[in-house]
Every structure is written in structure tokens, then in C-alpha cells.
Amino acid sequence: MENPEKLLDLLSQDARLTPAQLAAMTGASEEEVTDALRTFEKNSTILGYKTVIDWDKTAKESVTALIEVKITPQKGMGFDEIARQIYSHHQVESVYLMSGGFDLTVIIKDRSMREVARFVSEQLAPMENVLSTGTHFILKKYKDYGVEFDPSDNDKREVMIAW
Amino acid sequence: MVDYEQLLSDRVKEVKPSGIRKFFDVVATMPDAISLGVGEPDFETPWQIRRAGIQSLEKGQTFYTSNWGLAELRRQIAALTRRKYQLCYDADKEILVTVGGSEAIDNTIRALVNPGEEVLIPEPSFVCYTPLTQMAGGVPVPLPTRVEDQFKLTADALRAAITPRTKLLILPYPNNPTGAIMTRDELEAIAAVLRDTNIIVLSDEIYCSLTYGKDPHVCFAELPGMQERTIVVDGFSKSYAMTGWRLGWAMGPKELMRHICKVHQFGIMSAPTTAQFAGIEAIRSGEDDIERMRTQYDIRRRYLLGELRSMGLACFEPQGAFYMFPSITSTGLSCEEFCERLLKEQKVAVVPGSAFGASGEGHVRISYSYSMSHLREACFRMRKFLQSLS
After folding, report:
1. Contact, B42 vs A157, CB < 8 A?
2. Which stretches does DSSP call E strand in B152-259?
3. Chain B: residue nearest A153 by CA?
4. Structural domain of residue B360, as residue ranges?
5. Which end of chain B, C or N, has fewer beta carbons within 10 A?
6. Is B39 within 8 Å of A14 when comparing Cβ atoms?
7. Residue B229: phi, psi to the nearest 5?
8. Are residues A75 and A134 in the same domain?
9. Claim to verify: residue A25 and residue A61 sit in the same structural domain
10. Distance between CA B384 and CA B312 in Å, rounded?
């Protein structure tokens, strides 16, 4: 299909769009859409489909923290290997290599502050290459993955007699 | 007791109340109802345009402008017209800045139409042409268009409607509510009918920036010999998402514009100054914003068309504006019944096609000037409604 990356734009906004809807929206056939998506999945362009959830609205207790990590890369062991060791932990949601004052941003989600503290002090900080960590707890999410967390009804339009 | 009915002018009494209103009065009482009825962009005015308005206030630009509008704004409109259509208009004598496209339409009709003269109005179309003609003392003559012709005005229909009393032809394309557009060839056929007549054209091109096919919008004045007999109406509301600023314009031959400006200067004085400063910025820097919004409308258009067709409604593929105009005759309901029941049973508000002229019967107008999640929910409910009918 022509410009299959348009599918990625659409799915990044709404992963629940069906191949039939995507076909209607792009002008491609349903089969072309299915093929393109399969290709994207096979070559790991599309890595997964997740749901944006406001956990504060649920009974489930959880805490999210952002940890700034400074590391000393060891000979024969670049950032990638250290990052891998960190992201292998199930609590770790994201790991980014950063420019600037520290090396890795690690985002971790756990049941409580105590659990996060334990992870940092027992798992992360003692790692041989980790020079220092700085932990910031996230107090409130306003927007995540491009989605606002408090979607008030923003339609300010009033009724007109003549449109 | 004052007999108010007797006090009113006959012309105003002749004007019927809008068919759109009563549905939305009901919607307002239903907190869980959702609307697909709105006829304006859901986008806010792009920030740099709002900022230009704010800055003009900060600088104290709070006075009337020239009756014709700010000279710089008229120069920008002239330049925009040259860029888009290769048409030259004199910014001093041929471009009038108005309070939205609607005022430009009203001024034009009032400046041109004598009592008893006929105004040809293709229908279904925007609801203002008929009442404005009536209030000017003119005679509205509906020209029904058909879905078989993709709701375009045909040369034959035009020719058949012309009488010695015909003064004005309204050309409402891209069209609200059908989404129809007219190509250059189709406009040429209309122009050919008009060449030997004295009929003036009021080309309402307020949706000119919102077309979705390969070919760009054609301005009627581009056609050979038509600039001298056409008043082009355009504005900022739809292109730049600036409905509340109330800013539009009319352009045409100076011999007519001088008189159209008379109507404007005594009724209005000048368009809002803040809006005019924002309008200058809109033309200077708004092209990317137009494209961004148009892309979003197009995605929604394709989505909604696919959904409506998969629900079993026959739907003409609109090529412009932001409306769908599906046929609901397969349900066996009139368009008013359809809208009333859809609102009552699934709490979705759409507008009956008959609000836009008798030829709109059998259709409903659905706006896709809404977020995708809103459209998705509305489609879910409409599908349930249609399933309950079958």
C-alpha cells in the first residue's frame, strides 16, 4: 500500500482501530492493511499494543519513580549491556540513554515507595558500574503517551440556529 | 394589550424558524446525549493567530478600522487570492472585510436584489440564503440538486430556472450539508449558461480550504468572463478555525463593491478590529495549520464514511467541508422521525436533511468536526439504533 507509515500514525493514536477501519481511513484495501501490519510486526517496527490506564482510578496501589543513573562503562561492556541488566528487572518500565548530566533514565513502577526504595538500594545502586542514583517519585500524571488524564469535556461550542 | 404579531414586518414574519434549533434544545436537556450536529471546527484557533489578536489589544489597537477593513488585511487577502487562484483584486476598491461570511452574503443580497427579483438557490444548502433573500424582499427560487448528480448544480437545472426576473445565482460549493464540490469543467458548464445573461453570481466559498480530492478548489471567478459578474464570499471561520472571531470578506467588481460596502458601513461600520489583526497573522502564517486540520478532517471523513456504509446507509462520498449526508430512506423513516428517534433511543443528535431545503428530505447531516473518540462512540450508538430498526 501507498505510504504504510500512515498506519503507524493512526495506530499510535488509537491501537484499537480494526484493519477494516484503517483501510477506510487510508483508502487502502483491508488485505493491504493486514499485510502492512504483519510486516511492521515481523520487523519489530510495531513492538506491541498497550492500553493507557489511569491506575489512580482503580483499587490497585502503585508508585512510579524516575531514577537518574550515572554509570561508568567498563571495558568491553558498553552502556547497552548495563542497560540490559537494568531493564531485565520486571519492575522497570522504561530505560533511556540520555545526553547531559547523567546517563540513564530508569522508570520503575512498583507496589509502594518501600518497594521502590528496596529496588534502588538492593538492586540498582550496588551494581558494579553504577556510580550514583537519584530517585524522583511521580506525584501525579497529567498526560502520558499523548493522552490527557483528566479529559474534561472540552467542547466549548454552543448551539447556533444557523450553521 | 399590544398586538405584537401585527407590529412585525411582513418580511420577517415570512421567515420560518430554523429546523436545526429544536433538536438542540432537546440535546441541552440530556446530559448523556452526544452531538454530531455542530457546524464549526472543533479545533481552537492556532496559537500564533490568537497571540496576534492579544498583541493588538496590548498595543491599544481598539479603534474602528476603515469601513472596508484594515488596509494590510485587504492586501493580504488580495495576495492570498493571487497565490491561490491567479486572480487580481484591487485591495482598495474590490475587497470588503465583513463580520463573517454571513454578513458578506447578506450585504450582497441586499445591495443587488429588488423586491420581486429572483435569487436562485441550489439546495440542500446552508440555511441563510432563503431568509436573507426574503428579508431583502426578493423571491428565493430553490434549485433542488440530486444525489445522482452528486449534489452538484447542473447546467440544465440552471437554464430551466432562469426567468427575466432572475437577479442572482448562489453557488454554495464546497457545500454544507452535502460535502459536494464542483470541478472546473462543471463550473464551466454553469458559466456557459450565464455568459449571455445579466445574472450575478454569489459564490460562497467559505469551505474552499477543506477539499479532499486531488484537485484544488476552483474559484468561480477564475472562469473566463466570470470575475466581472461574481461576488466571491470567503472567510476565516472554517479555514483557520476562527468562527468566534467573526471575520470574512467579499470580493468582486468595484462597481458593485462600492454599493455592497454602503450596506456594510451603515449596518456594521467595520469588522472587529482585534479579529482583523488576528486575520492578518492567519493569512501570513496559517497555511501549515490549515493543512494539519485538513489532514485530520480527512482521516475522520474516511473513517465515518466507512462506518456509515458498513451500517447499511447509502452515503455519497463528500469531497469538501466536514459533513456527511447519508440517505436514511432504507429505514423507512422520514428524516425528522429518524433524528427524533435516534436522539430519544440512542441519544445521538444529527440534523434532519430537510432543514437544508425540501430536497434534503431522506437524508441527515452528520458533522465530523469531532474527535475520533467522539465519532467512535457516536457510530457505536448509531449502529445499535439501526440494528434495532431492522
Report:
1. yes
2. 166-171, 200-204, 230-235, 248-251
3. B374
4. 7-45+288-389
5. N
6. no
7. -130, 20
8. yes
9. no
10. 12
Which DSSP letter does residue A74 get? B
Q: Which residue range is the domain that position A19 belongs to?
A: 5-42
> Which tens digits make up the pLDDT trace of B267-293?
999 999 999 999 999 999 999 999 999
Residue B62 sits in the same domain as residue B169: yes
**Cα-atom radius of gyration of chain B, to the nearest Å?**
21
Given a contact cutoff of 8 angstroms between Cβ atoms, the answer to whether B74 and B68 are in contact is yes
Residue B39 belongs to domain with CATH number: 3.90.1150.10
Paired sense of beta strands B139-144 and B118-123, if any: parallel
Residue of A nearest to B371 (CA): A155
The beta-carbon neighbor of A162 closest among B18, B38, B299 is B18
B260: pLDDT strictly greater than 70: yes
Tell the residue number behind the cell numbers 463593491, with chain if given. Answer: B257
CB count in 10 Å sphere of residue A115: 16
pLDDT tens-digit series, residues B101-128: 999 999 999 999 999 999 999 999 999 9
H/E stretch holding B198 reads none
User: In angstroms, how far is CA B295 from the centroid of its own chain?
Assistant: 20
Substitution target in B105, B299, B301 with the highest count of A β-carbons within 10 Å is B299
Query: How many CB atoms are closer than 10 A to CB B303?
Result: 22
Return the CA Rg of chain A.
21
Distance CA A108, CA A105 (A): 10
Does the distance separating the beta carbons of B40 and A24 come in below 8 Å? no
Cis peptide before B272 (omega within 30 of 0): no
- This complex has an ipTM of 0.74
Mean pLDDT of A123-144: 94
Q: What angle do CA B245, B15, B106 make, to 5 degrees?
A: 40
Contact B57, B51 (CB under 8 A): no
Closest CA to B140 of B15, B10, B13: B15
DSSP secondary structure letters along B31-50: TT-EE----S-SSPPPHHHH
pLDDT 10s digits, B6-16:
999 999 999 98
